[in-house]
Amino acid sequence: MDDQNKNLILATALSFVVILVWFVAFPPPEPDPATETPTEQVQGTDGTATVPAGTANQPDAAAPVTQAPVAAVEAPRIQIDTARLDGSISLAGGRLDQLRLKDYHVTIEPDSETVTMLAPVGSPDAYYALQGWAPAGDLPADAVPGPSTEWTQVGTGALTVDTPVTLEWDNGNGLVFRREISVDNEYMFNIVQTLSNNSDTAVRAAPYGMVVRHGEPSGLKKFFILHEGAVGMANGELTETKWDEIPDADVDPAWGRPAIVTKDVTEGWIGFSDHYWQTILIPETGTTFDQALTYDQAANVYRAVTRLPTRTVEPGQTVTSDTQMFAGPKEWEVLQAYQKAGISGFVDSIDWGWFFFLTKPIFWLLHELHKLIGNMGLSIITLTLIIKAVLFPLAYKSYVSMARMKELQPEMEKLKADAGDDRQKMQQGMMELYKKNKVNPAAGCLPILLQIPIFFSLYKVIFVTIELRHAPFFGPFQDLSAPDPTSIFNLFGLLPWGVPEAGSMMALIFIGILPLLLGISMFLQQKLNPAPTDATQQMIFAWMPWVFMFMLGGFASGLVVYWIANNTITFTQQYLIMRSQGYTPDILGNIKGGFKRTPKDSKK
């Protein structure tokens, strides 16, 4: 076997390994129904004193108190209405628990339902946010508003970009709590909590925020390339915690349940992240606070909590706490704008993965190309041209080396005949031959190996970024984040019946136009060189394009478009460079020779 074929087999094996790993998907289990739907109130610390759990009148520093469920769906509500959001706030607990995204639909059909971000207790996949004050010291739990407390709206009207709303609750013993909620023209809410002490004694309380999810969300992808679960930033360090990692955490004595706690955060945020959407709590910058992820096994409830330091409120004094909450899609430009406004590392809430140093610039370039071109499919093709241009110097050396290897073929065959079974003599002779003719036998592998992390990064971009969701190309290809919707089963729409359901075995067998073009482009690229003389190698190379065609048939259409463009450009580059080196590939002859399964001499 000559070195060129060794290199090709090595590169092929590496590519197969990468693709097979990517293709592993874990189907989500059926969600467990929650046995109950309690809500929680966090309790604050009593200054710097160590408060043992269970001490009378001095509850544990962070232990939650379970309260009775509330009929949040039926409670009085304040409507939310902006250009991008609609929903409502429940006056029961002052919860933000109904939110929909006006710009995003469940399917590509324009009349399909809009995406639901938050849902109240009692509905499937209950998911909501609430804020409050955790009592500390001698302050009893019922002296502060809880998750079920009935608030009163000050004034009337809906929450809009121009009109914030204010909620108020008086505990009847001199403490008045107010909560002003505003929203910008994107997806950021601002919650200002105030506590006024009109009594004759000082009180202590700690402001907190909480995002609550009842059970794992339905429809989890559970695909290793995608992070779904909790995401947080604490003092410049990003953490991504999967759903199943939270219940597996050690039981924290302060919380009395599995909890992942980060203390003394001065700059950060925490919340829950889905494939394209997230809900994040962002305490006021410069304020020290604690973050916690907890799991209530009995109720199957996850919580992301931020708790600020305990505040002492003297008689006649008012204290204020300011928190932001993001609830919406992970749009690059929106997150970037918030990051520039002071939210540290907010763009990193997008799951860029291990190759972030490639994924981020690739996405940025694709995003800018899309803004310029206006068609995501054409933008992917243009991106492929740019990547191939950047790698062209390496590709040029590779193809020149391959052409020179062809010229050395007769001398290599002579070396093999002279050396016989003496492998060391054969290797020494080949090394001298390479050195004399300035040929690098490994040069053919380098561009292919470089393509692997680039391919992986582009796959990550196409799979995780919302800008690719429902992005159209042309004709039937109206969602480049989804597999090819066409199928051989109905002759690509010419026959009057539907295609197999996406994700089914039939859909993988009856592939669409794009995977078929991918297989053809790989086949033609392969035929730039004659088939190997070894029968085993011939079989591997003969099947490789069609195996890849079926393997990638279920991948995102945008990724297949990239690979087709990459194969086409590579074929053109290699053909022209080999011609410039005096070697003219006999493509038609190589195809015929491959069908005959007999070796064929190359032309010069």
UniProtKB/TrEMBL annotation:
One Pfam family it belongs to: 60KD_IMP
Molecular function via GO: membrane insertase activity
Region (Disordered) residue spans: 31-62
Membrane topology: Multi-pass membrane protein
Gene Ontology cellular-component terms listed: plasma membrane
CDD domains according to UniProt: 5TM_YidC_Alb3 (cd20070), EcYidC-like_peri (cd19961)
Bilayer-crossing regions: 7-26, 376-396, 439-459, 502-524, 545-565
GO biological process entries: protein insertion into membrane; protein transport
Domain named Membrane insertase YidC N-terminal: residues: 77-365
InterPro entries on file: Membr_insert_YidC, Membr_insert_YidC_N, YidC/ALB3/OXA1/COX18, YidC/Oxa/ALB_C, YidC_ALB_C, YidC_periplasmic_sf
Subcellular location: Cell inner membrane; Cell membrane
Keywords, in A-Z order: Cell membrane, Chaperone, Membrane, Protein transport, Transmembrane, Transmembrane helix, Transport
Ranges where the Membrane insertase YidC/Oxa/ALB C-terminal domain occurs: 376-579
Superkingdom, taxonomy of origin: Bacteria
NCBIfam families the record matches: PRK01318.1-4, yidC_nterm, yidC_oxa1_cterm
Subunit description: Interacts with the Sec translocase complex via SecD. Specifically interacts with transmembrane segments of nascent integral membrane proteins during membrane integration.
Function: Required for the insertion and/or proper folding and/or complex formation of integral membrane proteins into the membrane. Involved in integration of membrane proteins that insert both dependently and independently of the Sec translocase complex, as well as at least some lipoproteins. Aids folding of multispanning membrane proteins.
Family: Belongs to the OXA1/ALB3/YidC family. Type 1 subfamily.
The name this protein goes by in its record: Membrane protein insertase YidC
Lineage: Bacteria, Pseudomonadati, Pseudomonadota, Alphaproteobacteria, Rhodobacterales
Gene behind the chain: yidC
